[in-house]
From TrEMBL:
This is alpha-1,2-Mannosidase. The keyword Membrane does not apply. Pathway: Protein modification; protein glycosylation. The keyword Lyase does not apply. Residues 735-761 have a biased composition (Polar residues). It comes from the Eukaryota. InterPro entries: 6hp_glycosidase-like_sf, Glyco_hydro_47, Glycosyl_Hydrolase_47, Seven-hairpin_glycosidases. Residues 59-71, 716-726, 771-788 have a biased composition (Basic and acidic residues). PANTHER family: ENDOPLASMIC RETICULUM MANNOSIDASE MNL2-RELATED (PTHR11742:SF103), MANNOSYL-OLIGOSACCHARIDE ALPHA-1,2-MANNOSIDASE-RELATED (PTHR11742). It comes from Lepraria finkii. The lineage of its organism: Eukaryota, Fungi, Dikarya, Ascomycota, Pezizomycotina.
Length: 1032
């Protein structure tokens, strides 16, 4: 019979669970209207179109967009976004477009262009822990584990609500971070949204647009070495190597064409694909000029037709990573147009289409770009400000691409966008904590927030006084709000700004609705507005990182290249580069200690600085991303006639070649630590110093090791002393209870026993290394005196403080008249004194049988513990190789086992164990990143060094590098990254980034090409190796 009382707990729990699920589902629906993912709002007031892409295995031909509605991929940018369900809002067609966006919200919202922390135009509750897409670059640099977790959670959530596609591969997280990777992992039925041109909120007056430098280009010194004519044999050998490199390229290109056509990246092991860069076909566009250079004209024409079908106005991703898009897509299109001499107008048209979309990222009060541009009209129509924490390379690596596009199209707006960034960098360069270099993180907001110390972090109110221009009737994005924002920007005030010390913003994110003050409601005073500023360090930073590798690299690389591209007409690029070169050489370059002391190589490290007067804390590291520096110094030495810098360029490039040669695979690790030379001029190999760096805490462990040795010796001493006492007790006969004399003793037995006992003690002391004391024979009178003072039976010979309860109880027993005298008990002796092994086994035949079986190896088998195994290996337990019984007492009983801990290694043992276990190449103290991601930076510098010096050494080293890379990166459908370059047989990963075809193989190919092909005196190569024509 069903009883409600028995199950009422479960029923109540089920009701609560259902209610909670319903509640949080509604919350998720509200959160889906945030900046990262908008379902209910993003279609309102916009023309919605859908398209059906051709199969991934077939090239795209004629544009087939706008035919029918299909599923569009969606990217997961945050935890909140990953749980967004399909939209149920009706699709508003073009005929239903509303006149203004004021109808998008029905609740009072607050936003200001001065709020440097918010990108989204609508402030809605956001799930705690959700990531702002524009901050993902910085977070991936600082918290790669969090980025990996977010990607995994997003993948799981998306797959619960959508049907997974068999094509896309599992998402990966870029170990280096900061490159704007955000992979598209699922498909939904959400119709496509298209970008549309929006009126600028902060336009530059026409008369203030910075124009391209005019005039005849200056006579820049030649970069390339004057090569002599090669022999027929040399030419044949060179072309044979070129052909080999071309075949490797075609292998990966064929896999991409077959398995991932028009997608961003091929997964070379699984044959699937990934779309981390908006799904516009990053590998396709990135490889265009490589196809042309290698003479693959048919493949080039086919790729151009696929480019024709790319629609840059729509993407499954909610934001556009500005840096990656510029160097890969925009750079790839402009270079393909240049290298083919403008044979295909469609390439330039696509470049202009993309550039016009990206120009919206520069629509900020100070014209510093939003490095992750929210392109959808709902967002793009709102005013924004650049972030307070931006990666330096993402801000300063846009100049070459936009400048060349401006030169081709004669549109100065493209040059104006990047020239303003350069001007700000120029102003700030000598005012940083390391004058001459910029920190890796930059505040690009242009808004200096005052330090409000009037209240603590815990004393605050969630509401604040709203400005007159912002009332509950003014919807976000309406004309009145826009006018109010413009008015406050002009006046330098911050609409709705919050105190930097107030956590009100975080409180609002935690599912709370922002409160708008009523007229009669008391509120806190509005903090003052932001103070305009140029580029600066991020707010509230104490120490800053400086380096020329990851997060900063191409900003410095572009200084000499932009000078060349502008024909030397803009002198600031020279002065900025020279300051960088000198500061880097002074503060970041160091000589690593290697075995070949005659080989002088250099590395560029990473430094941390508190302020200009504090000491520089240099990390002696080497990274693959830093290997471009040798090529940069070589270009600067040639272009700016800095002859001494060519020697620096040679040593830096050879340092990366050394790193390639040091590993088991012949490939350089992603990152590692080395020992800097104490003397950069004279630096012989120092094994002692190397081991000290491998074992920096040797002194602490040595103290522990000595303490352990003393403890073990003390235990051994105790055991030896106990054994001697047991032997003495065993040899001592039973004494009479009345006279104290031995029952069966003979004259002189007592003295002999004492002498034997003393001899045993001497042997024990000698066994542990203790000096043996000379035997002292007591005089007869002293013996007699001791016999008189000898305690009677039944009394304890120990001091009162040492008598245990058990001994006290035994000593209190009185002997019974006529009873047999009691046997003396020896502490920790398990058997009776009079019982020998023979008598014990005679009384216990089963024990004797088991013991005999153990000795013969036929006894019962028991699993040995780790301790037993350790003791057996130390020779402390019997085994097959060391037959014998367990240690026993003198009476034949087994002694208890004593655990002996493993010995602590010495300093030398520890250092050698690290080298062996971590497979450390000689000279490296730690491999912090063992993978190889098909990176091009090392071969880039080798190529530039060969073209600049003509030294055949660089071709020889480059060929060895190519053979190692080609050997270990082969996948099923193309080349793949490898997991560990220190392993002789590393695993090939299911990853092939687009720069493998765009850069790495291009540099290998050009190294063995005729020097006149893509001459450095005719072209400038951007950071993705895209070749732009130099003005003549």
């Amino acid at each position: 019979m069903f009883r409600m009382r028995r199950y009422r707990v479960f029923i109540v729990f089920a009701v609560i669970t259902i209610g909670a699920l319903h509640h949080f589902t509604n919350i998720a629906n509200l959160e889906s209207a945030g900046a990262a993912s908008v379902e209910g709002l993003k279609n309102l007031g916009q023309k919605v179109e859908s398209s059906s892409p051709p199969p991934a295995s077939e090239p795209k031909g004629k544009d087939t967009t706008n035919n029918k509605d299909v599923d569009a991929p969606i990217a997961v940018a945050s935890l909140a976004d990953s749980e967004t369900p399909k939209s149920t809002a009706p699709i508003v067609r073009e005929s239903e477009v509303l006149p203004t966006p004021t109808s998008l919200t029905k609740a009072p919202v607050k936003e200001s262009v001065e709020d440097a922390e918010d990108e989204s135009p609508v402030k809605t509750p956001v799930k705690e822990g959700a990531w702002d897409a524009e901050d993902e670059s910085t977070r991936n640099h600082r918290f790669p584990s969090l980025a990996k977790t977010t990607a995994a959670v997003g993948s799981e959530s998306a797959n619960k609500t959508t049907k997974p596609h068999s094509g896309p591969a599992d998402p990966i997280v870029n170990p280096g971070g900061g490159e704007g990777r955000l992979e598209i992992i699922a498909e939904t039925g959400i119709p496509k949204i298209h970008w549309s041109q929006q009126p600028e909120h902060f336009p530059v007056p026409t008369e203030n647009i910075i124009q391209l430098p005019t005039g005849k280009p200056k006579a820049i010194p030649t970069i390339q070495y004057v090569f002599k004519a090669e022999s027929a044999d040399d030419k044949a050998a060179r072309e044979e190597k070129q052909d080999k490199i071309r075949k490797v390229f075609l292998f990966s290109w064929a896999g991409y064409k077959k398995k991932a056509w028009s997608q961003d990246e091929l997964s070379p092991i699984s044959g699937r694909y990934r779309n981390p860069f908006n799904g516009w076909g990053a590998t396709l566009v990135d490889s265009l000029d490589t196809l042309w250079m290698m003479g693959l004209k048919d493949e080039f024409e086919e790729a151009v037709e696929a480019v024709r079908a790319i629609d840059f106005t729509t993407s499954a991703r909610n934001d556009i990573p500005l840096f990656e898009t510029v160097i890969r897509y925009l750079g790839g299109l402009v270079a393909a147009y240049d290298i083919s001499d403008g044979a295909h107008r469609i390439i330039l048209d696509k470049a202009v289409e993309l550039a016009d979309i990206l120009m919206g990222a520069f629509d900020t009060p100070n014209r510093m770009p939003m490095t992750f541009y929210l392109w959808k009209p709902t967002f793009a129509s709102q005013p924004h400000r650049a972030k307070t924490r931006v990666v330096l390379a993402e801000l300063g690596s846009l100049s070459v691409e936009f400048t060349r596009l401006a030169q081709i199209t004669k549109e100065a707006k493209y040059y104006d966008a990047v020239a303003r960034i350069t001007n700000e960098l120029d102003i700030w360069q000598n005012n940083t904590k390391m004058p001459g270099l910029w920190p890796q993180q930059v505040d690009a907001s242009g808004c200096k927030k005052p330090d409000m110390n009037t209240q603590s972090n815990y004393d605050y109110t969630a509401s604040y006084e709203a400005p007159e221009s912002q009332s509950p009737t003014l919807m976000d994005g309406g004309p009145a709000k826009t006018a109010a924002i413009a008015k406050n920007v002009t006046a330098g005030t911050n609409v709705g700004a919050r105190s930097p010390t107030s956590p009100a913003k975080d409180a609002i994110k935690k599912r709370q609705v922002e409160v708008v003050d009523e007229p009669n409601q008391k509120s806190t005073p509005k903090p003052p507005g932001c103070e305009p500023q140029g580029l600066a360090s991020p707010p509230f930073t104490v120490s800053e990182d400086f380096g020329i590798g990851g997060q900063a690299d191409s900003t410095y690389e572009y200084l000499p290249k932009e000078y060349i591209l502008l024909g030397g007409l803009e002198e600031k690029y020279r002065t900025m580069y020279e300051a960088v070169a000198e500061t880097t050489a002074k503060n970041l370059l160091f000589r690593p200690m290697i075995h070949d002391e005659k080989r002088h190589v250099l590395h560029a490290g990473h430094a941390r600085v508190d302020n200009q007067d504090s000491p520089i804390r240099l990390t002696p590291e080497g990274t693959h991303l830093t290997c471009f520096v040798g090529g940069m110094y070589a270009l600067g030495a040639k272009v700016f006639s800095r002859e001494d810098d060519m020697d620096i360029a040679k040593k830096l490039t050879d340092g990366c070649v050394w790193a390639y040669e040091s590993t088991a695979t012949g490939i350089m690790p992603e990152s590692y630590l080395v020992v800097p030379c104490p003397d950069p001029i004279d630096c012989p190999w120092n094994e002692t110093l190397y081991h000290e760096k491998l074992d920096p805490y040797a002194h602490v462990r040595e103290q522990q090791r000595l303490q352990q040795q003393e403890s073990v010796l003390e235990d051994e001493k105790k055991v030896a002393l106990q054994e001697s006492q047991e032997k003495a007790a065993q040899a001592e006969p039973v004494k009479s209870t009345s006279t104290g004399e031995s029952i069966d003793s003979q004259p002189g037995d007592s003295e002999a026993t004492a002498n034997d006992s003393q001899t045993s003690k001497q042997k024990a002391d000698q066994a542990i290394g203790k000096p043996v004391e000379d035997k002292v024979v007591e005089p007869e009178q002293e013996k007699a005196d001791k016999a008189v003072s000898k305690p009677t039976e039944g009394t304890s010979t120990k001091p009162d403080s040492d008598v245990s309860e058990e001994d006290a109880e035994i000593s209190s027993l009185k002997p019974v008249e006529g009873a047999a005298p009691p046997k003396p008990l020896v502490k920790r002796q398990l058997g009776d004194v009079g019982e020998t092994r023979e008598s014990f086994f005679a009384a216990n035949p089963e024990a004797q049988a088991i013991e005999v079986a153990k000795v013969a190896g036929n006894g019962p088998v028991f699993e040995k513990s780790t301790t037993e195994q350790h003791l057996e290996t130390q020779g402390l337990l019997p085994n097959k190789a060391n037959q014998g019984l367990l240690p026993t007492h003198a009476n034949g009983t087994s002694k208890p086992e004593v655990y002996t801990p493993p010995p602590i290694p010495t300093h030398e043992e520890f250092a050698k164990a690290r080298i062996r276990d971590e497979r450390l190449p000689e000279g490296m103290t730690k491999v912090t990143g063992a993978s190889y991601l098909l990176r091009p930076e090392a071969i880039e510098s080798v190529f530039i060094m060969y073209r600049a010096t003509g030294d055949i050494y660089w071709r020889e080293k480059g060929w060895e590098m190519f053979k190692a890379v080609e050997k270990h990166t082969n996948g099923t459908y193309g080349a793949g990254a490898i997991s560990d370059v220190t392993s002789e047989k590393p695993s090939v990963l299911d990853e092939m980034e687009s720069f493998w075809l765009a850069e790495t193989l291009k540099y290998f190919y050009l190294l063995f090409a005729d020097p006149s092909q893509v001459s450095l005196d005719d072209y400038v190569l951007n950071t993705e190796a895209h070749a732009f024509k130099r003005p003549k």
